[in-house]
Amino acid sequence: MQRQTDDNQPNVAAAEVSSGFHGAAPLVGTTLGESYRVDRKIAEGGMGIIYAGEHLRLHRQVAIKVLKEPLNHNAEALARFKLEAEIIARLGHPNVVQVFDVGTTPQGTPYLVMEYLRGESLLERITKLGRIPLPSALRIAERLGSALAATHRAGVVHRDIKPENILLVEADGDADFVKLLDFGIGKVMASRSRITAPAVALGTPQYMAPEQALARATVDARADQYSLAAVSFAMLTGRPPFTGANPAEVLERVLREPAPLLSAVAPELPVGLDAVFSKALSKKAADRFGSVSEFVRAMERCVQSRRTPPARAAAPTEVSARDRAPSGFPSARAAPPSARPPGSERASPAGALPVTQRPPGGAAEHLEAARSAASAGRLDEAVEHAEALIELAAADRDPQALELLRTWLPLLDRIFSDRVGSFERRVRLSHAVGASGRARLSAAAEMFLEHAKGEPTVAELLRRSGAPSREGVRLLAGLLRRRLMSTF
Hints:
CATH class of the largest domain: Mainly Alpha
Distance between the termini: 43 Å
Number of strands: 15
Low-confidence stretches: 1-24, 184-202, 308-356
CATH architecture of the largest domain: Orthogonal Bundle
């Protein structure tokens, strides 16, 4: 069944889900821009049509979103379509659907070429399971928070965060990998231009912040935080915070009634989450957390505080290959400083710690240090402690590190991803890359440096390396931290 956003755009955006639209269409069989063959229609909404296609030179499957023909002369529809392309292209975040190209059909209708994804919407997952288990819901919320934090740093508010616009795809065996879709009603915060007429509320009532429901011009990133909290509430309870017989009734409750306590609907959840969600779902934007990242961290702290240390050491098989330490760097189990030959602890470039030495501290200290550094924007420091925690788990088999890794791996992935940044940025080898700069790097890291020649984009480098995406991002973040390469 096809699901649509409130402005009638299909939720699939760049993904094939069960839509019921697979018949013939005017563009099927044609080639757009001399590069994209249109194979079949995936979905159709009030504003757009999604086609599955293929890049003829790269032989890569793509999704093509085409503005409906009657709207080609509608200034507001054209502006929204163009804004969506600009917003997504600007972000380049792994949890946001990627745009590869834009163009116009021979008839002058604009289209976007996006990555082709197979998966299920978060709404379908909730409908299927009733409630999302807490660990999975936390992973999804963390990834959504990361995507939204990047969106807000780019000066954009999404304004339509809801389960239909969140696609879950499998990546490296991870069934909770998030792709945020549909920026068609996004707002550039610094822009004074207006696409929608004054006093028109855009969004979905069940997940819409009160100030958005009132169509205020001052809607900012805190509205997305409210929506993320409402989506997280729905994941954990199986229903949004406010329901009603019709949209008007829902909006009335959003504006007038306090949000229900999470524990009243799902008493098995940590009781501390009540305060977290009450704050994020506050009627006044000023009463919410300072950012989506703060909201996600508050959830993480609450869940972590309920856990107790494991009674016994975890079995070695409990950490999968994709959870191991980055293969490009030496194990932290080298001899202690006092046992090494003089001069063997050569300092790494730019004053970083020696590449053979792990910063002191236990698993919990490294986790807290990584989180604190990431929160303060000290990403190199955050990467260093994230690497140390992973090495404690994979190399030392530290029981506490193994337990923390099972819970906090999405956070560590986000730290590595934030250090790497946009996949559209280019990579450049630093002057430090030489015999001394490469000392004690593994063959995998050496190969990564070789692939970085010619200043490829991050996406190109990851493709050239052939490494799994998670491992490649970790490895690249470590090389960037060590100043062996840089992005620009």
